[in-house]
Structures are given as structure tokens and as C-alpha cells.
């Protein structure tokens, strides 16, 4: 699966953003690292290496953090700063030139990327279908007179392989299984910079260095220690996450999951008082670990080969023939994670109420005026100030740690639907709280979870209930009867 030599990135993963041709007279090829913040298992970086070698031009890797992105906070900034240090270290002994920029105040970085574009032979960047990225790509397509390529390194099955939006997990699972059974998708090389054959850029352009505080790889460690988050105009109310960001930590988390948790994953992942999940979602969101690397590690530990595949049937058990625990994890990664990317890639209103299935919109609208015995607004939800101790504990875990336990995340959303003044208000509150606090928020996978609460990827359920209509119903009482939650409530109350 993983190539031992550099090869051309599959064309299905490359999207040309504008009609401008590659300029052989440019000073360098630029890889603009925006979503896949890693130097390994990265199709976008591999494509940039491919172009640099072909043009015989130096490769520059540029990573930046703006300060006015939506929900910017100390929590997310620090998580990205951790990753910058890893990337600077990983590139120092290579022929690539890594440089980083942390915007000190809003709009101070204006014009920086345009200056890079004016000097580059071509720009390669990350084709992430969520958050601010699609609007950014649309804006720069005509403004930057430079060849720009977007590369998909998001998923195992390339986003562009299908021309339909999948509305239920079973249909996507069956499609994915057929694709995998027919031919295993090509994987990126582990260390694309090992194949960079052109000399290193002697120094960054003076017109960039003089106008902006851009750091080269050697300066990053020293400069990051001097960064004062308190001086940057972002939200300082959020505590830092317990987790360290960056690709080095991501690989440790992956290794720890495989050693300690994979063996009972199918059962333990749903127990609130056990740490049974992979804990990889934040690292996948920030691009610190690739799904291809995760897949390869699971394959290795289970001694799996493609010859063990069973015939596609759309069922979540048995296709991979890896054993129940690895099979359960593969379904989360290969079905539930990737169906979210399918939605965001194909439907630009993925974060709107109108993107819900028609049956869900209809039943929620029909019950919008139902009497709500308990109602809370955003402030009460955010503070964990409800009558339900289990819900409050889940919200406090989100506020303090930037995550909610796997199973309780579903209950968390269902109760917001139950207690908000309307379904649309519930959606607004879920998006605001998730994207403000969760390390893995602002991601196709987290939008899948939010919209599942309202019926996406689900079916109509009976009996029809007040407020929920035909949307699946969940209660704290049933959760407490099913799982151990006493210590969880005590920990986060």
C-alpha cells in the first residue's frame, strides 16, 4: 500500500484552481500548509516535491496562523504552535526550506501570500472541504496570478471518486467496500522530503523578510518560546488543552491507542468511565496524522493483507476480516469519517438546516411549536447550567478539555435539541459550542455528529414524539442505565 519510491500523485487527488500556467521562471515551488500540518504521509507535500524536482526549483514550505479566523483562541493557537515546532525540526535536515508566520494582530499578514505567489513557479495547497478553506480558495482563484493546485490528502478513498452525496452510512459503506475490494487506493509515501533532489533555497526573499516577521526553520524554536498568546487579539478565556499538538505527539497517541486500547475498542469506546476511544480526532483534524498512516498501523498490528477482504455487503462487521475490535475502528475511520468528507465536498450548505434529509426537516418543522417544559439559552448551555448532572458534566468536559466522551457527545446534542427553543436554535447552539471549544471542531466529522442529532445519516423512528417528531430520541436516564457514569459526573461536575 505505501510506496517505497516517489511516484506521481494520483490525478484524482489534484484539482487545478485557476487557468494560470506553471511559471518555470519562478524562484521556487511553494507548498502552503493549511490543513495537513505534517511532513509525512502527505499527498500535497508529495505533489510539491514532484513539481520542484521536475522544474529543478527549490521547495519552500510555508505554514501560518492567522489571528482572525472564526473561534480563534489560545486553545487552538497553542495546539498549532506545537505543530509548527515539529515541522520546523522535521525539515531542518532536508533540502526543503520551511518558514512560519504567526500573525500578531488582525490583517498584519495582509499581502504576504500574494507576495509569495508573485515569486512562485506554482503553489500547492491542501484541498480541505470545510470551515474557511472553500471560501478562501474561491477568493484567491482569480486574484493570484499564479498556478495553484489543491491536493486531497484527507481520506483513504479520494473525495472525487464519487459523483453522488451519500445520505446513509450503509450506502457509503457499501460503495467504499466495493472500491477497496476492486483496487486498494494508492497511498502517499511516508517521507516525501526524502525524495527532494533539488538544492535548498539559499535564503528567503528579502522583500518578504523585510515586510513581515517570517521565521525560517532555525528561528522557529526560539521565536515560538517568545510568542505571547495574551498579546494576540484572540479569545483568551479558554484554557489550553491537556493534549500537546503536533505530529510527534500524534504518533505517540496512535501508538498508545494500538498498544493499550485497540484490544477492547468495540466495547470500551462507549463507556464514559473508560478512556476507550482512539483520541485521534483532534490530530486528524489539524492534519498532524494522516488516515493513511493510521490505516497502515492497524494493518500492521493485525497482520492484515488485502487478500483477507470479504465480498462487499455494506455491513459494518466482517468485510475487513480483522477481528471485531479492529473492524469496529475501521468502520469509524473508513465509513463515518469519510462520509463526512463526502458531504462537505459535495454540498456547500453542509452546515445549514436545509442540508438535512427532507423527512427530518419536515418532522422537525412540524414539531417546532411543541411545548417545551424545559428551555435553555446559549448562556445556560455554555455554562453547563441545566437541571441534568450528566449533561452538565459532558459540557464541562468540553469546556475544560476540548472534547466530549464519544457516546456522551451524541446525548449532549440530543438534549440540546430537547431543550432549545427550536430545532434551528439547537443547531446554532451545537455549532457554536462545538466549534468554540472542541479541538476537533470545524471539521467534516464533527459536523456529521452535530447533524446526526437532527437526522442526517439516520432514518425516521417511531413512535413519533413531541419536539423530536420522528428523529431518534435519547435520554440521560437510559444512558445511565446502560453505562457507568457516576465517576464521570463527579469528575466533571
CATH homologous superfamily of one domain?
HUPs
Terminal CA distance reads 46 Å
Give the strand tally: 7
Q: Which architecture name of one domain does CATH use?
A: 3-Layer(aba) Sandwich
Q: Report the principal-axis shape.
A: globular
Give the averaged pLDDT, no decimals. 95
The number of helical segments is 20
CATH class descriptor of one domain: Alpha Beta
**Portion in strands:** 5-15%
Main pleated sheet: 7 strands, mixed
Largest beta sheet: strand ordering: 1-6-5-2-3-4-7
Q: Can you tell me about this structure?
A:
This protein has 493 residues and is an alpha/beta fold. Among the domains are: 11-153 and 196-227, Rossmann fold, CATH 3.40.50.620; 353-492, DNA Cyclobutane Dipyrimidine Photolyase, subunit A, domain 3, CATH 1.10.579.10. The protein has 20 helices and 7 strands. The chain has helices at 43-55, 74-91, 112-119, 133-143, 169-182, 206-209, 217-226, 247-260, 265-268, 281-285, 291-302, 324-346, 358-366, 378-382, 389-401, 406-419, 423-437, 444-453, 476-482, 486-492; strands at residues 14-16, 28-33, 59-65, 97-102, 120-126, 148-151, 215-216. Strands 1-6-5-2-3-4-7 form a 7-stranded mixed beta sheet. Helix 1 links the parallel strand 2 (28-33) and strand 3. Helix 15 packs across helix 20. The longest helix has 23 residues, at 324-346. It starts with 13 loop residues before the first strand and ends with a helix. The relative contact order is 0.13.
Write out key terms for the chains shown.
493 residues, globular, 20 helices, Rossmann fold, single chain, DNA Cyclobutane Dipyrimidine Photolyase, subunit A, domain 3, seven-stranded mixed beta sheet
Amino acid at each position: 500500500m505505501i510506496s517505497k519510491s516517489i511516484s506521481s500523485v494520483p490525478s484524482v487527488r489534484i484539482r487545478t484552481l485557476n487557468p494560470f500556467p506553471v511559471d518555470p521562471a519562478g524562484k521556487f515551488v511553494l507548498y502552503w500548509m493549511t490543513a495537513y500540518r505534517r511532513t509525512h504521509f502527505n499527498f500535497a507535500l508529495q505533489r510539491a516535491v514532484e513539481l520542484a524536482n521536475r522544474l529543478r526549483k527549490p521547495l519552500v514550505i510555508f505554514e501560518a496562523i492567522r489571528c482572525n479566523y472564526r473561534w480563534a483562541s489560545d486553545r487552538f493557537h497553542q495546539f498549532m504552535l506545537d505543530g509548527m515546532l515539529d515541522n520546523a525540526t522535521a525539515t531542518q535536515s532536508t533540502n526543503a526550506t520551511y518558514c512560519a508566520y504567526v500573525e500578531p494582530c488582525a490583517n498584519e499578514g495582509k499581502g504576504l501570500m500574494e507576495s509569495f505567489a508573485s515569486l512562485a513557479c506554482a503553489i500547492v495547497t491542501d484541498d480541505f472541504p470545510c470551515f474557511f478553506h472553500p471560501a478562501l480558495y474561491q477568493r484567491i482563484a482569480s486574484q493570484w496570478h499564479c498556478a495553484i493546485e489543491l491536493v486531497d490528502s484527507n481520506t483513504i478513498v479520494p473525495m472525487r471518486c464519487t459523483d453522488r452525496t451519500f445520505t446513509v452510512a450503509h450506502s457509503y459503506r457499501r460503495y467504499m467496500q466495493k472500491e477497496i475490494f476492486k483496487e486498494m487506493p494508492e497511498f502517499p509515501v511516508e517521507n516525501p522530503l526524502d525524495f527532494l533532489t533539488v538544492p535548498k533555497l539559499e535564503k528567503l526573499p528579502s522583500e518578504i523578510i523585510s515586510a513581515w516577521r517570517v521565521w525560517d526553520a532555525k528561528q522557529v524554536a526560539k521565536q515560538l518560546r517568545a510568542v505571547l498568546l495574551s498579546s494576540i487579539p484572540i479569545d483568551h478565556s479558554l484554557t489550553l488543552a491537556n493534549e500537546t499538538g503536533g505530529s510527534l505527539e500524534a504518533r505517540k497517541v496512535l501508538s498508545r491507542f494500538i498498544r493499550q486500547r485497540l484490544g477492547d475498542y468495540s466495547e470500551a469506546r462507549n463507556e464514559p468511565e473508560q478512556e476507550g476511544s482512539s483520541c485521534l480526532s483532534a490530530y486528524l483534524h489539524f492534519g498532524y496524522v494522516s488516515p493513511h498512516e493510521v490505516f497502515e498501523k492497524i494493518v500492521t498490528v493485525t497482520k492484515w493483507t488485502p487478500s483477507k477482504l470479504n465480498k462487499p455487503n455494506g455491513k459494518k462487521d466482517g468485510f475487513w476480516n480483522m477481528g471485531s475490535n479492529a473492524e469496529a475502528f475501521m468502520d469509524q475511520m473508513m465509513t463515518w469519517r469519510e462520509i463526512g468528507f463526502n458531504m462537505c465536498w459535495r454540498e456547500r450548505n453542509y452546515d445549514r438546516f436545509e442540508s438535512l434529509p427532507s423527512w427530518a426537516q419536515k418532522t422537525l418543522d412540524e414539531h417546532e411549536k411543541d411545548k417545551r417544559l424545559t428551555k435553555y439559552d446559549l448562556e445556560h448551555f455554555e455554562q453547563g447550567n441545566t437541571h441534568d448532572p450528566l449533561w452538565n458534566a459532558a459540557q464541562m468536559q468540553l469546556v475544560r478539555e476540548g472534547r466530549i466522551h464519544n457516546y456522551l457527545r451524541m446525548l449532549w446534542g440530543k438534549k440540546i435539541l430537547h431543550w432549545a427553543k427550536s430545532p434551528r436554535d439547537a443547531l446554532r447552539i451545537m455549532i457554536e459550542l462545538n466549534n468554540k471549544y472542541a479541538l476537533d471542531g470545524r471539521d467534516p466529522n464533527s459536523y456529521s455528529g452535530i447533524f446526526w442529532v437532527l437526522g442526517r445519516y439516520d432514518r425516521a423512528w417511531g413512535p413519533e414524539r413531541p419536539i423530536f417528531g420522528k428523529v431518534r430520541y435519547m435520554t440521560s436516564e437510559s444512558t445511565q442505565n446502560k453505562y457507568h457514569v457516576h465517576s464521570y459526573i463527579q469528575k466533571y461536575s
